[in-house]
Design a protein that fits this description.
- With about 180 residues, the protein is α/β, with parallel strands linked by helices.
- Helices cover about 40% and strands about 20% of the residues.
- It is built from six helices and seven strands.
- It has helices at about 5-15, 30-45, 60-65, 80-95, 115-120, 160-170; strands spanning about 15-20, 25, 55, 70-75, 105-110, 125-130, 150-155.
- The strands form two sheets. It has a five-stranded mixed sheet.
- Strand 1 and strand 2 form a beta hairpin.
- The relative contact order is 0.14.
């Protein structure tokens, strides 16, 4: 006799298929069903502390922009945004693969409207590729100048490989990627 958990898993597997791009789609795929599936994944994921791309507040992001360890990629998103929900697993996967080389964080634009406005977020999702500002010797010593430089800004959902390719280009001198 099959346990109820195994039966539930089997039912889900029968209703779902994994597309070549890694997204889970239902056999009768409507946009609402795909978004609902990814929203459930997003909500059921482990706590933000254990994620490779944790959710940060505007204040936490402000501190990160002052204290640099690694290049930073910010995903400005909203929980109601369909493309944001579709990209969430891709962003997390890219963050896991580049852990230790690049820092990834998520900023909920509805919870931190002031920070979203300061960053000029007009479309969702928006990815910001930020790196430490390296003075070229022209600035006076001791000035409180810029600590971060915006290397790139992309609006719209992206796949994991595109995110990784952009990190390689902006932070490590790789070739400019052709986005698909």
């Amino acid at each position: 006799m099959v346990s109820s958990l195994a039966a539930s898993v089997l039912q889900v597997l029968l209703l779902c298929s994994v597309a070549a791009n890694g997204f889970v789609t239902l056999q009768s795929p409507s946009a609402k069903q795909r978004i609902s599936t990814n929203r459930q994944f997003f909500a059921a994921s482990s706590s933000e502390d254990t994620k490779a791309a944790p959710l940060v507040s505007g204040e936490e992001l402000e501190v990160m922009l002052q204290e640099w360890e690694l290049p930073l990629v910010v995903d400005a998103y909203a929980t109601w945004c369909g493309p944001c929900l579709l990209m969430a697993p891709e962003f997390e996967s890219a963050a896991q693969e580049l852990k230790g080389k690049v820092r990834f964080v998520k900023l909920d634009t509805d919870k931190d409207e002031a920070m979203a406005a300061r960053l000029s977020i007009m479309g969702l999702p928006t990815l910001l590729f930020l790196d430490k500002y390296e003075a070229d010797g022209k600035d006076e010593a001791g000035t409180d100048g810029a600590k971060a430089v915006l290397k790139g800004r992309i609006e719209g959902a992206m796949r994991k490989q595109n995110i990784k390719d952009l990190c390689e280009h902006y932070f490590f001198g790789g070739p400019e990627p052709k986005l698909s």
